[in-house]
Design goal:
The complex is a heterodimer of chains A (300) and B (487). With 300 residues, chain A is mainly α. Chain A has one domain: MetI-like fold (Orthogonal Bundle), CATH 1.10.3720. Chain A contains 13 helices and no strands. Chain A is globular and about 75 Å long. The two termini of chain A are 17 Å apart. The model of chain A has no long low-confidence stretch (mean pLDDT 88). With 487 residues, chain B is of the alpha/beta class. Chain B folds into two domains: 186 residues, Periplasmic binding protein-like II (D-Maltodextrin-Binding Protein, domain 2, 3-Layer(aba) Sandwich), CATH 3.40.190; 196 residues, Periplasmic binding protein-like II (D-Maltodextrin-Binding Protein, domain 2, 3-Layer(aba) Sandwich). In chain B, strands 1, 2, 3, 4, 7 and 15 form a six-stranded mixed β-sheet that branches. In chain B, strands 11-10-12-9-13 form a five-stranded mixed β-sheet. Chain B has a two-stranded antiparallel sheet with strand order 5-6. In chain B, helix 4 packs antiparallel against helix 16, helix 11 packs across helix 12 and helix 19 runs antiparallel to helix 20. Classes of the chains: A mainly alpha (300), B alpha/beta (487). At the A-B interface, helix 1, helix 10, helix 12 and helix 13 of A face helix 1, helix 2, helix 6 and helix 19 of B.
Chain lengths: 300, 487
C-alpha cells in the first residue's frame, strides 16, 4: 500500500492541473446553480423576504423555522413524502428488476418491449400527468376497464376522493419512472458473467437459486444505486401532485408534499423567506436520509 | 438529476476511504452551515434590538432596492401624464389573449392614432394559463411591460406595490362618464383610479327553458325573484329523477384559478357572509367562517356528494349535449350555448342562499406600469382600446358586457327581454347583487385560501373546519404582510 502510494505521488502531481481544468466547467456550474442558490436560500430563510412587497425586508431570526415546524401542514406533507417513498422505493425497484429480467431473455420481440417499457421516461412528467388525468377520470378508460373486470363493484373517483388520490399518484409515478431503473438494472444483468450461470446450472441450481445466488449478488451495487436514486427522486415528488388533483396537494391535502408546500409558500403566497426555510429543512432531511443509507452500502 | 448521479457510489475498491473523505467534507460543510446560522442568528438579534428602538432595519439588496419605487421617496416617482407624447416610442403590452380582437386592436392602434403620435405597441401574448405567474415574475425582476392587461382583483396588490400608476392625470374631464360604474369601482384602489376595462363580466346559470319546464320549475326573470336554495335543491333533485344523472355543470375542470372565487364566493355572500371583512380588510374571521357561510357551503357540499354536480366533465360538452341541465358559469359561454340551443337558452340568477341572489363582477382590464416609458403614450393606447369602436369588438369577442353605456345600449341582448339582460341588471345593482371582488392587496391570499377550501369541501371535508383554516390562512398572510399598510 505504502509503496504504491509513493509510486503514484509524482504522477498525481502532474495530473493536478489538467484534472482541475477538466472539472472546472462542471464545478463552476455546480457552484453557480446549486451551491450559490442554496447559500442564498439559507440567508433568506432568516428574513421575512417577500416575492412582491414595498415593505422593507427584515431579519427575523428563527421565526420562519418556528412557524414551519409548528405548522401541521408541513408535518402532513412530510408524512405523505414518507408514505410515497415507502411504497414506491420497494415496489419500483422490484418491478424494475422484474421488467429487466423479462426483457433480458433472449426471446423474439424483447427489443420491442424494452423500448415500450422505457418509453414513458422520454415524456415530461407534466405531460404524462395531463394524459393520466384523462385516463383516471371517473368515467375514463381505466375505470371503464375496472368496472368491466370487477362487474361494476370498483370504479373509484381517483382524484377527488382523498382515499384514492395517493394511490393514483403512485400508479402514475411507477408507470412514468420504472423504465429508468429498468435500464440500469438491465445493463447490470448483462454484466453478470454467463459462465457463472453455466456453472450454477451444472451444479444443479434451479432458476430461483440461480437468481438468488448469482444474479442478485452480481448486480447488488447497481441495485443499491437504484434504491438510492429512487429515494432521492421520490422525495422530490411534485409534478404529478401539482397537476393531477383538483387542487395542488390533493383533496384534503391527501397528496400534499414538501415540494408543494415549498412552492405554495414561496411563490403562491409570495413568502420567499418562509419558503426558503422549508427548502433548507428539506435539504437537511434528504441529507440525513442519504447519510443514514450509506451505512447499508455494500462492501467489496 | 445528473448532478445526483455523481454523488452516488457505484461501488468500487476504495469505497470506505471515499465515504470517509466525503463524510469529512460533509462535516466541514455542516460546520460552515452551522457557523453561518450562528452569524445570521446574531444579526437577527441585533435587528430585533434595533427594531425595538423604533428603527426600521432594512437589508440592502443592491440594485433591486434602489429600483424599488417605494424607496425613491419622490425624486424617483413615476412619470405621469403631461399631455404630450415625446417622440417616437415603442410600448410593450402583455396580454392574456392573442385573439383577433386583441391583435386587431393593436394593429388598428399602430396604424391609426399610434402612427400619428409616433407610438408603436408591441403585443406579447402570454396566454391565459399561468398569466399571473408571468407578470408576477416580471414584476419581481423589474421587467414589467409598459401596458399590463390584468384580471381585475390582481390590480390591488400591484397598486400597493406601486408597480402600476394612477391614471388620474391622464384622463380629461368627462372622459369617464360613459363607463359603467362597476368598471370604475374595479379600477379604484385607495381612492385612485388605476385601470379601465373594455368589458365587465356577467355571472348566472344557463339552462334550457324546455328542460326546466319539463320538471315544472319556475323560471326567474331577475335576481329579485331568484330561486330560493330549497327551490333550487328541489329542481336539481327533480332533474336527477327525470333521468339527468348530474344536472349541474359548474366547470370544475377549470381548476384552481380565478374561477373558484369568482364563481362560488357569491354562495357565501348570498348567505350573508363574505370572503373578507370589508370594513378594514384585516381579517376574514366571522365572514368566511360565519354560521351562515358554513350552512350555505354545506348545502353546496351536499349537492356535490349527492352527485347532483357534474365533477367529472373535462370540457363544455356536458351541457351542450344534455348530460347536464344547467351550467353555472360566466358570460364567456354565451356564444357557444346560444349556438347550441337558440331560443331555448335561458339565463337565470344564482340561487338565493338567504340574503338575496349574488353574482361575481369585474374582468380583465388595462393598467399602466410605473416604469412606463411615456405615460401619455400608454394612455393613448388605453383610451383607444376603451373607445366605443374597440369596446364593441373586444367585448363581443369575449361574449362580455361592454364597459361603455353607449355600446351597451346598442346591443338588444342586453336590453329588457334580451338574453343577457340579467347581467346588466346585476351590475347596475352592484354591490347589492353583483359583488365587487375585495379591493385589497391580500386578494391573492384570499383567492388561494378560498379556492383550496372549496376543493376540500367538494371532496367531503368538514365545512366548519375547512373554512376556519381558510380564515387562518388569510389572516396569517395579512399578518405576514403587516396588514398591507397603504403607502
Amino acid at each position: 500500500m505504502a509503496v504504491s502510494q509513493q509510486d503514484l505521488a509524482p504522477k498525481r502531481k502532474r495530473a493536478v492541473s489538467p484534472g482541475l481544468a477538466f472539472s472546472l466547467p462542471a464545478v463552476s456550474m455546480l457552484l453557480v446553480f446549486m451551491v450559490a442558490p442554496f447559500v442564498f436560500a439559507t440567508i433568506l430563510s432568516f428574513t421575512n423576504k417577500k416575492l412582491l412587497s414595498p415593505l422593507p425586508t427584515r431579519w427575523v431570526g428563527f421565526d420562519n423555522y418556528r412557524e414551519v415546524l409548528g405548522d401541521g401542514d408541513f408535518w402532513g406533507a412530510l408524512k405523505n413524502n414518507f408514505v410515497f417513498s415507502a411504497v414506491t422505493v420497494p415496489v419500483q425497484t422490484a418491478l424494475a428488476l422484474l421488467l429487466a429480467s423479462l426483457v433480458n431473455q433472449k426471446l423474439k420481440g424483447s427489443v420491442f418491449f424494452r423500448t415500450v417499457y422505457f418509453l414513458p421516461i422520454t415524456f415530461s412528467l407534466s405531460a404524462a400527468s395531463i394524459i393520466w388525468l384523462v385516463l383516471l377520470n371517473p368515467s375514463g378508460m381505466l375505470n371503464t376497464f375496472l368496472e368491466t373486470v370487477t362487474f361494476g363493484s370498483f370504479s373509484p373517483d381517483w382524484l377527488n376522493n382523498p382515499k384514492y388520490t395517493m394511490a393514483a399518484v403512485i400508479l402514475v409515478s411507477l408507470w412514468a419512472s420504472v423504465g429508468f431503473q429498468m435500464v440500469i438494472l438491465l445493463a447490470a444483468l448483462q454484466d453478470v458473467p454467463q459462465t457463472l450461470y453455466e456453472a450454477a446450472s451444472i451444479d444443479g441450481a434451479t432458476a430461483w437459486e440461480r437468481f438468488r445466488n448469482v444474479t442478485v449478488p452480481g448486480i447488488r451495487n447497481q441495485l443499491f444505486f437504484v434504491v438510492t436514486i429512487t429515494i432521492i427522486l421520490s422525495f422530490r415528488l411534485f409534478d404529478q401532485v401539482w397537476i393531477m388533483p383538483p387542487k395542488p396537494g390533493g383533496p384534503l391535502d391527501a397528496t400534499n408534499t414538501i415540494m408543494v408546500e415549498l412552492v405554495n409558500t414561496g411563490f403562491k403566497s409570495g413568502q420567499i423567506g418562509k419558503g426558503s426555510s422549508i427548502a433548507v429543512l428539506f435539504f437537511l432531511i434528504v441529507l440525513f436520509l442519504t447519510i443514514f443509507q450509506r451505512r447499508f452500502e455494500p462492501e467489496e | 438529476m445528473f448532478g445526483q448521479w455523481e454523488n452516488v457510489p457505484l461501488g468500487g475498491t476504495k469505497q470506505k476511504e471515499k465515504v470517509q473523505m466525503r463524510l469529512s467534507r460533509m462535516k466541514s460543510l455542516l460546520a460552515l452551515l452551522f457557523a453561518f446560522t450562528l452569524v445570521a442568528a446574531a444579526c437577527a438579534g441585533d435587528e430585533a434590538a434595533e427594531s425595538s428602538d423604533g428603527g426600521t432595519s432594512e437589508i440592502s439588496e443592491g440594485a433591486a432596492a434602489e429600483e424599488d419605487p417605494s424607496d425613491g421617496g419622490g425624486e424617483d416617482a413615476a412619470r405621469t401624464c403631461d399631455g404630450e407624447v415625446e417622440g417616437p416610442v415603442t410600448l410593450t403590452l402583455t396580454s392574456h389573449s392573442s385573439g383577433d380582437a386583441y391583435t386587431g386592436a393593436v394593429s388598428a392602434f399602430n396604424a391609426g392614432p399610434g402612427s400619428e403620435l409616433g407610438v408603436t405597441v408591441e403585443l406579447i401574448d402570454l396566454g391565459e394559463a399561468g398569466y399571473e405567474d408571468f407578470i408576477t415574475a416580471a414584476a419581481a425582476s423589474n421587467d414589467l411591460p409598459d401596458i399590463i392587461d390584468m384580471d381585475g382583483p390582481f390590480l390591488y396588490n400591484f397598486a400597493w406595490n406601486k408597480f402600476v400608476q394612477p391614471l388620474g392625470n391622464c384622463i380629461s374631464d368627462g372622459a369617464l362618464d360613459d363607463f359603467l360604474p362597476s368598471i370604475i369601482t374595479q379600477g379604484t384602489y385607495n381612492n385612485e383610479l388605476y385601470s379601465l376595462g373594455s368589458f365587465d363580466s356577467g355571472m348566472g346559470i344557463w339552462a334550457k327553458r324546455s328542460v326546466l319546464e319539463s320538471v315544472g320549475a319556475r323560471i326567474p326573470e331577475s335576481s329579485g325573484d331568484a330561486w330560493s336554495v330549497d327551490e333550487f335543491d328541489q329542481i336539481l333533485r327533480d332533474l336527477e329523477a327525470s333521468g339527468i344523472s348530474a344536472p349541474l355543470d359548474i366547470k370544475w375542470w377549470y381548476g384552481a384559478g380565478e374561477w373558484r372565487p369568482y364563481g362560488f364566493a357569491p354562495i357565501v355572500q348570498s348567505a350573508g357572509g363574505d370572503i373578507i371583512n370589508r370594513s378594514d380588510f384585516q381579517s376574514a374571521a366571522g365572514a368566511l367562517n360565519s354560521a351562515e357561510a358554513v350552512e350555505a357551503m354545506t348545502t353546496f357540499q351536499t349537492w356535490a356528494t349527492d352527485g347532483l354536480i357534474d365533477l367529472d366533465a373535462v370540457d363544455d360538452t356536458n351541457f351542450v349535449e344534455g348530460d347536464a341541465a344547467m351550467s353555472w358559469v360566466g358570460h364567456w359561454m354565451y356564444a357557444p350555448y346560444k349556438e347550441a340551443f337558440g331560443d331555448d337558452l335561458v339565463l337565470v340568477p344564482l340561487p338565493d342562499f338567504g340574503k338575496g341572489s349574488k353574482a361575481g363582477m369585474g374582468s380583465w382590464n388595462w393598467a399602466m406600469s410605473s416604469s412606463a416609458a411615456d405615460p401619455d403614450a400608454v394612455w393613448a393606447f388605453i383610451e383607444f382600446v376603451t373607445s366605443p369602436e374597440q369596446v364593441k369588438i373586444i367585448a363581443e369577442s369575449e361574449g362580455a358586457v361592454p364597459s361603455l353605456k353607449s355600446v351597451l345600449a346598442e346591443d338588444p341582448t342586453f336590453q329588457p327581454g334580451g338574453d343577457r339582460y340579467l347581467y346588466v341588471q346585476n351590475l347596475e345593482a352592484a354591490p347589492d347583487i353583483a359583488v365587487p371582488r375585495p379591493a385589497t392587496p391580500a386578494y391573492g391570499a384570499i383567492r388561494n385560501a378560498f379556492s383550496d377550501a372549496l376543493a376540500d369541501i367538494i371532496a367531503g371535508a368538514d365545512v366548519q373546519e375547512t373554512l376556519d383554516s381558510a380564515v387562518e390562512e388569510i389572516d396569517a398572510d395579512i399578518a405576514a404582510n403587516e396588514g398591507y399598510p397603504a403607502g
